[in-house]
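To: structure desk
From: M.T.
Subject: fold request, one chain
Message: Could you run this one when you get a chance? Sequence is below, nothing fancy, just the single chain.
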Amino acid sequence: MQVNVHFHCNLLGLVLHIFSVQIICVFFLSIVAAYDPLDPTGNITIKWDIMSWTPDGYVAAVTMNNFQMYRHIMSPGWTLGWTWAKKEVIWSVVGAQTTEQGDCSKFKGTIPHCCKKTPTVVDLLPGVPYNQQFTNCCKGGVVAAWGQDPSAAVSAFQVSVGQAGTSNKTVKLPKNFTLLGPGPGYTCGPAKVVPSTAFLTPDRRRKTQALMTWNVTCTYSQFLARKNPSCCVSFSSFYNDTITPCPSCACGCQNKKNCVKSDSKILSMVGVNTPRKDNAPLLQCTHHMCPIRVHWHVKLNYKDYWRVKISVTNFNYKMNYTLWTLVAQHPNLNNVTQVFSFDYKPLVPYQSINDTGMFYGMKYFNDILMEAGPLGNVQSELLLEKDKDTFTFKQGWAFPRKVYFNGDECMLPPPDTYPFLPNSAYKNLLVYPKWILTLLFVLIAIW
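Reply: Done. Structure tokens follow.
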């Protein structure tokens, strides 16, 4: 049943991808399961491997793999929670910690690390002592996107669980998994027992395996994350002086009273750029009220090529976007010749279509998008080869169909506001119904 549902959803996603429409697939197996047609297999998989039994429980390695191509977990990092099936406690954690200990008053002698029925675990910060570290831990909960850096798309910790089962038959799987990354948006399915993970020794001559393994799959939904978009797109071109701005209130104007003007004295105060614990933004006052604006400028036209300039501007005074990603969908991205000052990777979720690409900053150069201000922008240019059968500047063809920043879809301007080719008014008139043209000529004759 699951295979059929997955197949039909992928087939539907392919169709909707072609027409630049997004859908959310809802299954009865989980409360809300998100489906992204640009990344149909993207998810975060949390794997529990029981490595050894203890007198009253087990020691498990918990590994979080981010299989999303362009959506990462940024600072202040992930938060993982669950509900124990019985009366389990956490004796110790290596490479992470729980945010609360809970009531451990009934224990004498050794006190557990956490006694809560619903523990909440966070990653450790970089620089912790070596004896507190575990493989792929201690990055402050920051996890890169799989398409950007697979080696950094993993986070892990080790947990010793007590008052649990001591065999495969007596262990009860935790329930009600939750994942914040760092805010809401992820929905996790139930834990499922899977074939035990196999491990190779360093000399790769011996294979061992976990005593028991279960997986938890979490998917992302932008609708759960926030009610308004978090970015917007503006357009301009060399063939038209008109600049198409972001739509007004593209990201909601409910926080218009709390925005800051670019010349405000508040910005000179010490600590104004310090992020808050709840990640609340401090936005520059704009008509769109978005923390991020992406500008797509059609710059030059050559005989066999055309050139585009992309600018990303940060209007949030309290946020540095590290490991940022930008995804664009455009039919000519199948002929990208050169990308300047950004790294680029084509995204091909469907083998027959190559119209989507991911852009991200070069390491140690522009992989951090600074907070609002003079340094709060990054820019790049693309050189694209023309396909003479499809290339045109008419009817907004030169502008992207979809734009994502950090995995969230940005709001585009209405199509009728796109920069148009000069002297195109008469051509546009010809597409009107004949009766309108006839009526127009009659009125002119009468006049």
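Reply (cont.): Helices lie at 2-18, 222-225, 425-429, 434-446. Let me know if you need anything else for the meeting.
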